[in-house]
């Protein structure tokens, strides 16, 4: 299962693997064992088998502590604006359908502002600006079905 973990500085790519019946969380090459428990149809996780947290089953952020850092967890879908290599390009990480486009070319936007709504895995996801800037180009329209890796919006950074 692919995970994206956001701390105050950046987004880390993580992965959950299973070896010999034991689950491991790998974040930036660091491998930590964790434990799962199902109770009344709900799944909980723990890193120490003492403190158990509800395991998120959708893209809503859920916080947990990893190596003394508080992280928000997103399953399967990279939060928009999180790719530090190119914060001005918003690219889909999974197939979806564009529901609404809330911006226009040449419009000024602020970091965190919702630019469009993308339906993926039967959920509506707000795609937000990762930087303050100006809309350079919009490559989608409402109703478009797009594949993973599709460039949706380009932003020019505000100087």
Architecture overview:
This protein is an all-beta fold. The chain has two domains: 2-75, no CATH class; 84-157, OB fold (Dihydrolipoamide Acetyltransferase, E2P) (Beta Barrel). 0% of the residues lie in helices and 55% in strands. The chain contains no helices and 16 strands. Strands 6-5-4-3-2-1-8-7 form an eight-stranded antiparallel β-sheet, with no helix packed on it. A four-stranded antiparallel β-sheet has the order 9-16-14-11, with no helix packed on it. A four-stranded antiparallel β-sheet has the order 13-12-10-15, with no helix packed on it. It is elongated and about 50 Å long.
Strand-helix topology:
Blueprint (H helix, E strand, L loop, with lengths): L1 E5 L4 E9 L2 E6 L2 E10 L2 E5 L6 E2 L7 E5 L2 E7 L13 E3 L4 E6 L6 E2 L4 E7 L2 E6 L4 E6 L6 E2 L4 E7 L2
Antiparallel strand pairs: 1-2, 1-8, 2-3, 3-4, 4-5, 5-6, 7-8, 9-16, 10-12, 10-15, 11-14, 12-13, 14-16
Features:
2 domains; mainly beta; OB fold (Dihydrolipoamide Acetyltransferase, E2P); 4-stranded antiparallel β-sheet
- Range of strand content: over 45%
Helices and strands, in order, run as EEEEEEEEEEEEEEEE
Strand order of the largest sheet: 6-5-4-3-2-1-8-7
> Which spans of ≥5 residues are poorly predicted at pLDDT below 50?
57-61, 80-86
Multimerization state: single chain
Task: Using the CA coordinates, give the radius of gyration.
Answer: 17 Å
Q: Which bin fits the share of residues in helices?
A: under 10%
N- to C-terminal separation?
A: 38 Å
Please report the number of helical segments: 0
Identify the overall geometry: elongated
- Quote the average pLDDT: 76
């Amino acid at each position: 299962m692919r995970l994206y973990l956001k701390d105050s500085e950046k987004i880390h790519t993580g992965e959950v693997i299973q070896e010999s019946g034991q689950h491991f969380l790998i974040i930036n090459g660091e491998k930590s064992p964790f434990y799962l428990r199902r109770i009344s149809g709900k799944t909980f996780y723990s890193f120490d088998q003492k403190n158990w947290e509800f395991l998120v089953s959708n893209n809503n952020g859920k916080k947990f502590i990893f190596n003394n850092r508080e992280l928000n967890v997103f399953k399967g879908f990279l939060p928009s604006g999180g790719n530090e290599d190119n914060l001005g390009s918003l690219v889909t990480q999974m197939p979806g359908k564009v529901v609404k486009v809330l911006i226009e070319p040449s419009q000024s936007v602020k970091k965190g502002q919702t630019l469009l709504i993308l339906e993926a895995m039967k959920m509506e996801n707000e795609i937000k600006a990762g930087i303050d800037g100006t809309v350079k180009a919009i490559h989608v329209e409402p109703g478009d079905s797009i594949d993973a890796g599709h460039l949706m919006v380009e932003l020019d950074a505000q100087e």
